[in-house]
Specification:
Length: about 240
Amino acid sequence: MASKKPAYKRVLLKLSGEALAGDSGYGIDLETLNKIARDIAEVYKLDIEIGIVIGGGNIFRGVAASANGMDRASSDYMGMLATCINAVALQEALEKVNVVTRVQSAISMAEIAEPYIRRKAIRHLEKKRIVIFAAGTGNPYFTTDTAAALRAMEINADIIFKATKVDGIYNKDPEKFKDAKKIDHLKYMDVLKKQLKVMDSTAISLCMDNKLPILTFNLKVSGNIRKAVLGEKIGTLVED
Ligand code: GTP
């Protein structure tokens, strides 16, 4: 059987911080981290270019802290620092499985990571290094989903892979309704109007205005990133 060709040349993978926590829900579970790294390594071999934006919710959730009375900007900065911890952890795990990476941070911390420089990030990608973008957009009030949309646009990615813990978007809550059906395709406007939980509205609007498709799928299923890269029908695709 002829090996399948990737459907994309350059992708932006958005990982939530929680994805690294495993079942404990907090911090970094090394077994989970290494499993994700192996999944990414498998895709890396397909010779596509990969940028990764990682969240920080496994360590600190800025939005939740501000809801509990903390100043929003301060709690968002703490959340951005949390993404840096995850980025360094992911870099370590990826390099252990022979994936060449560079971490670029939107907040300068030269001793730990390179600063975010768009042209340099693109050069790294061209040299087949995975670039992990840390510290969100570097600004409070913006989520890491919005950072993913922004970086995807900046590096001219073909698509955003939004890896989550569910198989895609359903017409009703699959945990409550047995007859809930997964939706294969959605329009940006439907996501916005129905407030579907794909990404926050700023991120969706940015993708809509720039016609960047988003594929959301379950990261917990081994091999799903590979299927997504090969253009197999998984998850829910959001586009025009
Ligand atoms: P090319 O020159 O394009 O091949 O890229 P390169 O990343 O191999 O070269 P560079 O000399 O920029 O980086 C060498 C190593 O140092 C890489 O692991 C970079 O991630 C790291 N590095 C580069 N700049 C910084 C920085 O400002 N801070 C930190 N902490 N590391 C850096």
